[in-house]
Design a protein that fits this description.
There is one protein chain. This protein has a single domain, classed as YVTN repeat-like/Quinoprotein amine dehydrogenase (Methylamine Dehydrogenase, Chain H). Helix content is 5%, strand content 49%. The chain contains 1 helix and 28 strands. It is globular, with a radius of gyration of 19 Å. It starts with 5 loop residues before the first helix and ends with a strand. The N terminus is likely disordered.
Length: 352
């Protein structure tokens, strides 16, 4: 099924679309996906078991056909409906994924636009794939993988994450900025870029990002206001983070939860920081302890589960933990993976 030619992509897309229609996600296992990020980048698939003793069982390790190697990034693995994507930093490609029943399959290899290199983050909408690399951002028709918009240059090579809202996409730059990319009616990038002016106290090392409708949340991780909101008019609303601020605490990687809740992986604090917001500000609520340093975080589309990957403090390597989200947005630990011989995971996503 793997191939870079248009015919292979079309066959893969039509087959998967038919399977997705038949499956429709009903009664399926909850799967959690991450990647090994090594020279031979593998997709790692865990099954969340909640009948009897809660656990995360290793379901499969699938070669993506590409190489990893990214660091200081989030969103390297994404999944939406029947399809997913994995960024292959070291080989300048994105691997398409497909779910059939309770299994994940590796599909086509998607090449980046000419001149775009080192993909660090991907984002998915129902009709579009967005890729942020070392030097540009691009969009692809989804799930065909066809490049359908102009590549847009980034001002530097410090991209942390790409995220997409209703009318615009955003890329965080660790050098100290957020970039806005308007999207057209079909979902493709229009080719323009606007810099978001960040205020002092909320402009140091933007990392993770996610959207609430068309409202962007992001983490200026090394700032006293380590969480901030940006609306489509590029107005910024900073929110003070956990105290003391960096270097003791630094919410880095962000996921939108149910209602007005946001969750951030706090790397030096070895915890998950929880925030509440409206459209013009918010407040830090509390932190939930982890067993190590988080490197990415995600919430399932039904908003029942949170998953976080982290490097274990006990030296055992990469771990994945899943928490249940209750009706108030509070987190209850459910299961943590056992070591599988990987130093650190990169990217995390649910498939329901």
């Amino acid at each position: 099924m793997r191939g870079t030619h248009a015919g292979g992509l079309l066959v893969f897309t039509l087959m998967a679309a038919g399977l997705a229609t038949a499956e429709n996600g009903r009664g399926r296992d909850v799967l959690v996906l991450t990647s090994t990020n090594g020279t031979n980048n593998e997709l790692v698939v865990f099954k969340l078991n909640t009948d009897g003793t809660d656990s995360l069982s290793l379901l499969s390790r699938l070669p993506t056909g590409g190489a990893g190697g990214a660091s200081g990034n989030a969103g390297a693995v994404q999944f939406r409906n029947a399809f997913g994507a994995v960024a292959n930093f070291g080989s300048n490609t994105v691997t398409q994924l497909m779910r059939t029943g309770d299994a994940i399959r590796v599909g086509a290899t998607i090449q980046l636009a000419e001149g775009c290199t080192k993909p660090v983050s991907v984002a998915l909408s129902d009709r579009e794939l967005y890729v942020a690399g070392a030097d540009c951002v691009e969009s692809h028709d989804w799930p065909s993988g066809r490049l359908d918009g102009p590549k847009v240059a980034l001002p530097d090579t410090s991209a942390g994450q790409v995220a997409v809202g209703q009318t615009w996409a955003a890329v965080t730059l660790k050098s100290g900025s957020v970039q806005q990319f308007p999207i057209g009616g079909g979902g493709a990038l229009t080719g323009t870029r606007n810099a978001v002016a960040l205020p002092l106290g909320a402009n140091d090392t933007p990392f993770g990002a996610d959207f609430w409708g068309d409202l962007l949340g992001f983490n200026p991780a090394h700032s006293p206001s380590s969480f901030a909101l940006v609306n489509k008019d590029r107005n910024v609303f900073p929110v003070t983070g956990p105290q003391p601020p960096f270097p003791a605490n630094a919410p880095c990687w962000l996921a939108k939860g149910p209602g007005s809740i946001w969750y951030a992986g706090n790397s030096p604090g070895q915890s998950i920081s929880v925030f509440f917001s409206d459209g013009r500000g918010g407040t830090f609520y509390k932190s939930v302890a982890l067993g190590g340093t988080p490197t990415d975080i995600t919430v399932s589309r039904d908003q029942k589960w949170l998953a976080v990957i982290y490097t274990a403090a006990d030296g055992s390597g990469a771990r994945l933990s899943v928490f249940a989200i209750d009706v108030f947005g509070d987190l209850a630990p459910v299961a943590t993976s056992t070591p599988i011989g990987v130093t650190s995971f990169n990217g995390v996503a649910f498939s329901l």
